[in-house]
Amino acid sequence: MIGPVDFVGLEHLAVAEASWREPLEVLNGLADRDGVVGLISDGGPEGRWSFVMAGPDRVTAAGPGEASGFDPLTDLRLRAVAAGAPAPFAGGWIGVASYDLGARRLIGRAAGDWPDLILMRFPAVVAFDHVARRVVRIGRASDLAGAEARLADSEAWLSAARPTQAPSPPAASWRDAASPEAYRAAVADVVRRIGEGELFQANIGRAFEGELAPRRDPFDVFLRSALSGPAPYSAWLRLGDRALVSNSPERFLRIDEAGRLEALPIKGTAPRGRTPDEDAAGAARLLASAKDRAENLMIVDLMRNDLARVSQAGGVAVEELFALRSYERVHHLVSRVTARPRPGLSVADALEATFPPGSITGAPKHQAMRVIAGHEPPRGPWCGSMFHVGADGGFDASVLIRTLAFGRSASAWTWRGAAGAGITADSDPEAELRETDLKMAALRAALIG
Q: Which of 64, 167, 236, 269 would give a disulfide with 38, using CB separation of 3.0 to 4.6 Å?
């Protein structure tokens, strides 16, 4: 088991501001280093801040079967970002929870080869406020001199920033992990089960895999993806022989400034149009789609039920329903569910009540996960969550969709990713197959052009 997550040794804080630099340029200067994380947002309503960090002072990773829950976080209490905090994340823990951690805990599913839970503690971070165009350097330690030294580390990262340009496509191969025919058959099976009353919805994934060309690096994929259009939750992580590239648009869970829990589930997808009129028409069709609205509503109800387990009585609310969000290649329907947590609630309590995210499982959640397990191998980090837990109280977690997991072999980096579609009673297998192609289009372009 991993030991408790705590902030002992991070009590003293040193802060300085710097001239604006693009966070991607700063991350680019650290790209060759191990133990680097970049949370690179698009600067939009859900992505005002980006963060870059290196040199964790603690790293723990629980392999398959080693973490029975979110015990490492049980000593941490949920609270709003502390008054006067220099940024929503001002040093603390970065975590990656694989989908299989939740599947094993809830339905006894065997895990894959990706760690159940990775935790990295960073005593220094550079925070980028896209709206105010300000950069905040932060150092933390057990004494002021140590905090100043960590602050100097962050200054060196800014000095090492490098201009960015898109490298050539780095992938040597791209292939379906299973045939399109197998995916159509899986969708048809789920539609049948829904018709028989076994469940209402399940998110069925279609996996892809391949290798990078010799001497090519996963950061090439991240750079191509981010330059083509970062999402609110774009992320890069390198740790040993593993790397993670995510271009996720979806928030799983966070604590807002008022101390409330907030989830932003996505359900409903349509392609962007080639002209303004075509784009507007596609968005209007999505907003009017009875199927997509029903799919979204089922997940909103699921999230309401999950959050109610850890909230004050009557404290759960739906503040947005079927809101349109537009990204580089797709439109999405997004809803907003908030909750007032019970006093003393821990991060572990909140995650255990809600993980894995409802938008990538289905309803009822446990039965949907059993159906998923019958059609898919272990998912690894895809459909899990990447999150930060800050010493000043900040907590924010993404859903790891539009995500690739990399592992380094003797000859090259291998990669694996997937895209899913929410299957309902009136799903058409061919249409759901096309939706997975649409959702993988940006990552496919980053890999092979």
A: 236
